[in-house]
Amino acid sequence: MEFFGSAWLYLHMPIAGVKIFWPGLVLIGFSVGTIGGFFGMGGAWMVTPGLNILGFPMAFAIGTDMAHIAGKSMISTMRHSKFGNVDYKLGLVMLVGTMAGIEFGAQIVMYLERLGNVDSIVRWVYAAFLALIAWMVFYDYVKATRQRKAGLVGEHGAKGITWYAALHRIKIPPMVNFRVAGFTCSVWLPIGVSFITGLLAGFLGIGGGLLRMPALVYLIGCPTHIAVGTDLFEVMISGLYGAFTYSLKGRIEIVAVFVMLTGAAVGAQIGTVATKYAQGYGIRLAFGFAVVCCMFSVILKEFRYDLAAAVLILTTIGVICLYIIKILWKGAVEEFRSKRSLDPRRMPGTI
Amino acid sequence: MKSLNLTIGVIALQTFACISAWAGGEKASEIVVVADTRVLSNPLMRYIADTYNTNLWLFAVWSVVLTALFGALLGLLMDWLMNKTGLDLNSRKIIEH
Amino acid sequence: MKANFFWIAVFFPLLLVFVDPASAADVAQGKCIVFDTVGKRIILEEYGTEISPDHPYGKSTGLVSVFDFAQATIGITPEPGDILRIAFSAEGGVKRALKVMNVSKQDLRKK
Predict the structure, then answer these.
(1) Which domain covers residue A247, as residue numbers?
(2) For C105, which DSSP code?
(3) Among A34, A196, A332, C94, which residue has the least CB neighbours within 10 Å?
(4) What residues in A contact C111, CB-CB < 8 Å?
(5) What CATH number is associated with residue C46?
């Protein structure tokens, strides 16, 4: 996909044989790191569409994204040296479902590729998936604003959702007791849930944490702190397995993975540090708009407005990155200044 | 609640039917990709593409291992770099994927 | 633990590199002249690597080669006139195809 005339802006991908606008690749990697680090969720949802828009065939975009997720989860695991609180028994049981789901999703992608319409179908599923994320973000925002107005502070409000209690009552053997997470249920519940999230991950080339986290809490009944660790564990293993199965199918562009990973490693630091200085819900809105813009660019790509799609997605993530960098810059300057002057009135952590 | 479940079920079925109808109707044949090593001069790129053409298993092992190692290396490097900047990173809980 | 993981990760692929003898293959691209399913051979008019708007798959070099595809993985069934890319190993004068990609029928650049 050539947007500009200058040849040096394009990197030749050895396997797919396409020429890729490499600054776009770096920007995607950097943004997914920054935005993912800042909002505390994967952010891989923008990589598959982004790669496809830059010119990767869809199956390559998904495979490359999976490998990039594996690398990124290695980065964060190394940084924290551990996953945190993991119920390894639950993690291993879910691994069965996750891996089966990823394989099934990848097989669907390969089947659609043989039929010749994987690009269109994945793009439409993506549009629907991004619409769902946007809805979740905006709904959350509206709920939070309403609660703030009503004077509810701190608490998440009435939890209400206890589907897992009903699901735990389904007693299909074998029943398993997960000691760390503190519940007993049929082994098929975590396997089923992880199969579905794995399927989506394998089909769309995402980590699946966005769906697995709420599923762990609401459907399986995992305490939140254990859900976080277990999810990280699942993301890493599923990324590695996804990378393996997609490269075995010959649908990975390893050079692109490395370029993006380098950008992501730098971006992730900026994003995670910036969370320290960020306040308020406004940034969540920006995130929601980014998702909506990403959705529109996927649709633009579908109707062959390649340049418009590329410009839309790259400028959107670029602007959000700049915004996050601004937060970081301001916060860091403030922190250094307050450290130097040792002024007790200046509180670190304010913008 | 029951009607909601029913609606979701019907929508899911319809989506599935649409996708199958859309997907069907054409003949299926495997897609094989051959990396064009004629145009690659960089030895590393050449090795990657050669491995891809001749031995996909080795290629798969390499890509997983290299990705994991590179990720781990970047993680350690960034940790070290962030420590150097002197910003206090422990005052707020960080959750990342 | 970490060090163990590291060494296993490095040595396992290296081991495979040495175990696997056929690590390099040549690639040819060009127009399919004959696709013989009985004799399991492809006759290919080879193209060069320079591409231009007039010759998106390269210019003909005039060279005609025969490939044995008895053991090859073949994508979309080639027909005379299709542009093919073949990874092959040359053993004793015989060009044995490993993979056959039908470039014109699955054009990756369009997607």
Answers:
(1) 7-341
(2) T
(3) C94
(4) 52, 57-58, 119
(5) 2.40.50.320
Position C4 in a domain? no
**ipTM, two decimals:** 0.80
Question: Number of B:C CB contacts under 8 A?
Answer: 81
The backbone torsions φ and ψ at residue C45, rounded to the nearest 5 degrees and listed phi first, read -90, 110
In a domain, A1, yes or no: no
Residues of chain A with C-beta less than 8 angstroms from the C-beta of C108: 16-18, 57
**Domain annotation covers residue C111:** no
Is the bond preceding A23 in cis, omega lying within 30 degrees of 0? Answer: no
- Strands (E) in chain A, as ranges, are 10-12, 19-21, 175-178, 183-186
Contact between residue A38 and residue A269 where contact means Cβ atoms under 8 Å apart: no
pLDDT of residue C7: 67
How many domains in chain A? 1
Residues A288-314: tens digit of each pLDDT: 888 899 999 999 988 988 889 889 999
Minimum CA–CA partner of B71 in chain A: A71
Q: Is residue A314 part of a domain?
A: yes
> From A113, which residue of chain C is nearest by alpha-carbon distance?
C106
Whether C18 maps to a domain, the answer reads: no
Domain hosting residue C44, numbered range: 24-104
Q: Closest chain B residue to A271 measured between Cα atoms?
A: B96
